[in-house]
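2024-03-11 09:14:02 INFO receiving multi-entity request
2024-03-11 09:14:02 INFO entity count = two
2024-03-11 09:14:03 INFO echoing inputs for audit
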Amino acid sequence: MLTLKTIKDLLINNKKNSDNNKPKVYIKSDLHTNIDYIRNTLNNASDLIVREFNIKEYRCAICLIDGLTKGDYAHDLLLKNLLVDIWTTDKIREIHSVDELFDALQSQFIALLDISVVSDFDELFINLLSGDCVLLVDGIAKSITIETKGWIDRGIVESSSQTLVRGPKDSFNESLRTNTMLIRRRIKDKRLRVESRKIGRISKTEVAIMYMEGIANDRIVQEVHRRLDRIDIDGIIDSSYIEQMIQDHAYSLFPTVHNTERPDTVASSIMCGYVAIVVDNSPFVLLVPGLFVTFTQAAEDYYHNFYYVTFIRLVRFVSLFLALLTPGVYIAITTFHQEMLPTSLLISISNQREGVPFPVFIEALIMELTFEILREAGIRMPRAIGSAMSIVGALILGEAAVNAGIVSSFTVIIVSLTAICSLIIPSYHISISIRVTRFIFMVLGATFGLFGIISGLVVLGLYLSSMRSFGVPYLFPFAPLNFEALKDSVIRFPLWKVNQRPKLISDNNETRQSSDRKNNYMGGKT
Amino acid sequence: MKRIIILILVVIFSLSSLTSCWGSRELDEMALVSGLAIDNHPEGYEITVQIMLPRVAASEQAASSLATRNFSEHGESVFQTIRRLIRRLSRKAFFSHCQVIIVHEDVAREKLFEAMDFFFRDPELRSDAVFLIAKDVKAKDVLSVLTVMDPVSGVSINKILQAMQKYFQANRDMNFHDVVADILADGIDAAVRGVTVKGNLEKGKKYEDIQESEPVAYIVIEDLAILKEGKLIGWLNEDDIKGYNNLLGKIQNAIITVPCSDTNFYNLETRKIKTKYKVIEEDGKVKVKVKINVTATLGEIGCNIDITDDKEIKRLQKIFEEEFVTNAYRTLEKLQKEYKTDIVGFGEEIHRQKPKLWKNLKDDWNKHFETLEVDITSNVKIDKTGKNTNNPLNKYLKK
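2024-03-11 09:21:47 INFO inference complete, emitting structure
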């Protein structure tokens, strides 16, 4: 655990050294000087463990941060190696100098996979604080870093934000290594690239970019690298930090970077040419480019019958528009265009409106805000009082408000329809945008009627089609129109018909599979 | 950044000062009109509007209290009179949901155009409101009769007309919109359904009426008013309407009845009536050939006939063909000789098929119509005889 002071130190160091001419501090040959330097730099942190021991007459020391290393690796394997197993080899008897020992340590004595030699303290500290063991030998101005990272994580559990009925149930967790493992397990191809870097002046969070060499668009990959390089922030707490720092249209309400908790979504996206950004300490993996259509698709779409999925996707698009427009259109029609309603509907609406003290707009606004409050409360409140909340929400606000004549029951229907519709959208991300935009449409409907709604839609359409995500038009494949990519958009063609990867996203390798399944198994007749 | 802030401030200020919402009306600020009646008045017009009371009309109370109220005002002009209604309504009348417009026959005879001009002009009025002419009763009395099927009588009358158009008798001009279109068109005159009230009118206005199992007063749609050049000149009775329907071919599902003995009838349920017009020119004279094609089901048989016999069916078809043709001829004669008005649209048909010829006829079409030669033939096809292939009468009546 880093103390506040050391963080402050690091911060000051960083500030001092941000102009890149900081003098590198190299490891000295004297062991105790080195140990003292480490101790002093970390200000005798209580979780720093330094273990000194002898191999033959040579003095050595292992440094590690307690809790960040895989316990059995550091304690048992490494120490047992160096103190006990070493004597079973013949080599030990042939060692007559420190240099020979240092070489032998690298080549023979340490029975752990990943080791490297480090000669400056900056790198040593990064390794040490990431959970590696550092082995110092008296008389050598270098250290050996042994990979022993390992800590307790949440384990691979079922996704809580993107659930499904059929399909793989595993989801990412907070460990970067687990996350890349989950993706690797699904793509066993040598062209899968994992390129990582550390971002964050203080946090030094590991961020890995994963993509398929030869499928992903090079320009997009380079652009991702470039944007990640530009990030200069003190700490990355969650992948959403990265998202906000790299997305196009920084002030836009609509997201241009997709995120998911599901490894299957990431794997299939990578195979389509998308670039994944995995961030340590975050179970949400980013996918770029993030297009409008990707936010409306769920992982399960590919696991069910395509007729059903096409139907469900249509329902989704309809409810997307309902979530966006229903309150606005309701206000517009009841205050401007009463002639558009069927007579019997008008009678029943105006029956409910009689005696309601507020104009329709205010009434709808009250209910919409109430719902937003309820939703926010539902997320923030402690689980245990959930049932109390639903009683208050459903009974008191819905039922009683109508009985008291504060709102009409028709407005309650409209608001609940909108609420349900906004929940059907698979990506919470875009449903937030829709929820906010809805209020704009309510104002437009209340001031200009349907004319306002239509103008709003036109402006929204123009705005969305002007947006780009990493160079790819946001409304692709609708605008620009691309028939191959349309096969997997609002409709979904059967898997064996979608033979091309989406253009623009995967630029250089579009053929996905041989043309037709009928060559092989169609009909099952021989 | 400064510019953006200034821009936002400007927008907010202008939005708050231009309160906008121009033309916005809350539902509870308006009186929904479901029916409109225009009668003559010494001062000009007497206008009655039927206002729906949504609280009653939309709830279970509809069965126990009145869902509408009628308000009458009179004045010199229509618009002025309608505005005067505000004094009694406390809300502005809203005409977009007006279901029915009833004009008294005297108004239709004297000044239909003048009375209707406001409604042609005003964008609020729905063009598919049913248009009727009150016969023998005041137009406002028609609106006053309480109806049972629908608590709002305007809606009820509208629905009656819709159903009649499909299953009973059809005319060209059911809606306000059609009437206007036909009055303005060349080569056709408008014909509008008449409406009247049967039974005890005074009692029919009272709520007790709809609590009786048999209403004491009820609305009847009957006869067809002929509007020559936009003025009522006479009526076609029920028998004439049959022929009119055959000429028009607009109704699909009608019942045609032909006597087979002194007391019994054959009934035919038509499923499709298609009337074709062919305009031909013979020695400089125009001639119209009308062919009425009918596909029908034998609906009810009152006489002894073997329906499994093809010959018998053919004989029946002949009888019905004759019926169609004679009815059509009779109505046509009445239109040509008595009223001298083309409400079927022969002129329109000539215009469509022989536009060059029409140029000569156009100016005094009604005169030409009087002497127009029309040749009517009919083809009836009875291809279904109902569920029962056997005729029970066949067995017993013979004896």
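2024-03-11 09:21:48 INFO post-check: The two ends of chain B are 105 Å apart (CA to CA).
2024-03-11 09:21:48 INFO post-check: Chain B has two domains: 29-236, 238-399.
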